[in-house]
Amino acid sequence: QSILTQPPSASGTPGQRVSISCSGSSHNIGSNYVYWYQQFPGTAPKLLIYRDDQRPSGVPDRISGSKSGTSASLAISGLRSEDEADYYCVTWDDSLSGRVFGGGTKLTVL
Amino acid sequence: QVQLKESGPGQVKASQTLSLTCTVSGDSIDSDDFYWSWVRQPAGGGLEWIGRVYTTGTTNYNPSLKSRVTISVDTSRNQFSLRLSSVTAADTAVYYCARDPIYCTGTRCYHDASDIWGQGTMVTVSS
Question: Which residue, of A77, A82, B111, B113, is most buried by count of CB atoms within 10 Å of its CB?
Fold first, then answer.
């Protein structure tokens, strides 16, 4: 069981907006920045969102991150077939003194 | 541009020690601006943070692996390494090395999650 809780799956049709949640506690999300990764099979994770809501250069603005209290969300609007991938949230946990990942969400574009 | 590459045996026998090295190119590992991390992922599974090392040798480890893990840095070779002892089949995974930026604003510094990753290397623990 992961410290951070993500839904195992999410889906949407092309053009739709999809949101993926990440739930934690005051020891992690509630007191530290959240980051999001996208991962395709057989490849290394790619940073999508850093410090809750910042996009690295090259990440389109249809991808956004937000945080409220002990939960964070990744939103993808204008869904495309190439968005079909696994998505992970991650943050620092103060009580564990270590980085913790969510269990990952498999996004399917129908 | 900065690149990281993992190297080491693809197979380790159970109860022995897994040893991997990450070679950093395009930048100096001897920088105040980064930590250097190891993350692993079993087949079909999620990501698990193993630990990280700073240029000074300061480390942080996943509590669940702490008793078996050693991460070290060799600034002369621009490399950092992972050693995981007493391995079992549960340690079979793709192992990634990664760079973690340190972001400072005002009087506070934050340790960002990894922005650059190696391609990963598969390690199988055999009996």
Answer: B113
